[in-house]
Amino acid sequence: MNGDIACIGAGYIGGPTMAVIAKMNPGRRVLVVDINAERIAAWNSDNLPVYEPGLDEVVKACRGKNLFFSTDIAGAIKACDMIFVGVNTPTKTFGEGAGYASDLQYWEASARTIAQEANGDKIVVEKSTLPVRTADAMAEVLHTHPEHTFTVLSNPEFLAEGSAITDLLNPDRVLIGGPQTARGRAAVRALVEVYAAWVPRRRIVTTNVWSSELSKLAANAMLAQRISSVNALSALCEATGADIAEVARVMGMDRRIGDKFLRAGPGFGGSCFKKDVLNLVYLCRSYGLEAEADYWEGVIRMNEEQQRRIVARTVKALFNTLANKRIALFGFAFKANTGDTRETPALAVANLLDAERAQLVVTDPKALGNARRDLAHLPHVALEPDPYAAAADADAILVMTEWPCYRELDWGRVYASMRKPALIFDTRNLLDHEALRRIGFRVLAVGRP
Ligand SMILES: NC(=O)c1ccc[n+]([C@@H]2O[C@H](COP(=O)([O-])OP(=O)(O)OC[C@H]3O[C@@H](n4cnc5c(N)ncnc54)[C@H](O)[C@@H]3O)[C@@H](O)[C@H]2O)c1
């Protein structure tokens, strides 16, 4: 074992995770490879393909020393005994399980490449989020080349985008699942060593492979369920005169509940929650657990309902017609501190507003590049980096992402440039609503009377 590490897949997970592993293991070489040459070029440039606070510093400190980005997948497989696979596993859009199951074609392609290029025994680490029992299928694919031994471990990633570097440097836990055999236990020990370079041992949890695969889906399902629960309560608050911020505070003070992830808003987004919950639904159904599948599917339905309700309330507040009204979306990223727009609630809201024939203008400090791609089907939507210019002549502003910079805007100036009556719908409950009302805005919020 030379201790060097390869990672197939240089995305939101592969890039930051490997950068931190390289930083904390200066004695190991870490080779990050991808089929996407453009992405690799970006990792080798000053303009990294992923925006994460603190990522630039970590990459710059290690790149060219013990951290390398390239498209030489075969070379990386040959050079390293431990190979992480962090390729995308999106929801299937075709065939059996379409709309629910994970599309494992990229994972399987990676496994086949590893089998083909391997020059010795390899430890293959599932970093991608995968359905339970995928490791079995992968082991089978890998063993099509029986001259070498492949040990498949599960090491799901729990970082949150927007805080990836701090999450990686200080994780709540690192989870490693491995086969309960002598070879499996040795592979687990080798992977524990990588993380033990900076993570206290008590936070490194080892389990069997199936528990590890399921724990990742389960953790995301529980987090998504909290968001859907608090959003369901926000609708009831609006109807009754209760205030979701007050209700959430009271709930959160109960130590059995805890105060995290209890913010009402436009619903969860990001590449993981929806796909992982759908995958759980699919798994339940494939084991004949219909009631359990329906239960988890409700989490997704509630999320979509929240976006529908935001648009319905906007229509109502603007005198039941949005036709030709200019509406500015403040924020398009699925949350603050990331440029990622996958499954962003802002896109669902943009589609619904467009169906009402509103004229949309979108602003965001980091996500306009992705927004341009996501909104290509709505060519008349304007993209505007400057929030003041986006607001000018607008009838309404919908705050879709909780970017702290929106708190600092000169809202008097924004108000003066808008058509009157000027509406602001703060779907993140980010701004000071009383101050906005004093300026003259009509203010809508989530879960508040
Ligand atoms: N994004 C997150 O916050 C997050 C968190 C935890 C887990 N995950 C999981 O991590 C995995 C990756 O997610 P991501 O957000 O980094 O995806 P991503 O799409 O940003 O990155 C995946 C990369 O894999 C590359 N790739 C695909 N097939 C390949 C192949 N055969 N050979 C080489 N490279 C290949 C793609 O070109 C792409 O650059 C997913 O399973 C996801 O569920 C993501």
Average pLDDT value? 97
Corresponding CATH superfamily of the largest domain? NAD(P)-binding Rossmann-like Domain
Backbone CA Rg: 23 Å
Strand count, sense and barrel status of the largest sheet are: 6 strands, parallel
CATH class of the largest domain: Alpha Beta
**Which residues form runs of ≥5 with pLDDT under 50?**
none
Which architecture name of the largest domain does CATH use? 3-Layer(aba) Sandwich
Task: Give every kind of bound small molecule, once each.
Answer: nicotinamide-adenine-dinucleotide
Tell me the number of strands. 14
The CATH topology assignment of the largest domain is Rossmann fold
Task: Give an account of the 3D structure.
The structure is a single chain. The protein has 449 residues and is of the alpha/beta class. It is built from 17 helices and 14 strands. It folds into 2 domains: 5-207, Rossmann fold; 218-449, Rossmann fold (3-Layer(aba) Sandwich), CATH 3.40.50.720. The chain is 44% helix and 13% strand. The strands form 3 sheets. Strands 3-2-1-4-5-6 form a 6-stranded parallel β-sheet, with helices on both faces. A 6-stranded parallel β-sheet has the order 11-10-9-12-13-14, sandwiched between helices. Strand 12, helix 16 (411-417) and strand 13 form a beta-alpha-beta unit. Helix 9 (209-240) crosses helix 11 (273-286), helix 9 (209-240) packs parallel to helix 12 and helix 12 (290-317) packs across helix 13. The model has no long low-confidence stretch (mean pLDDT 97).
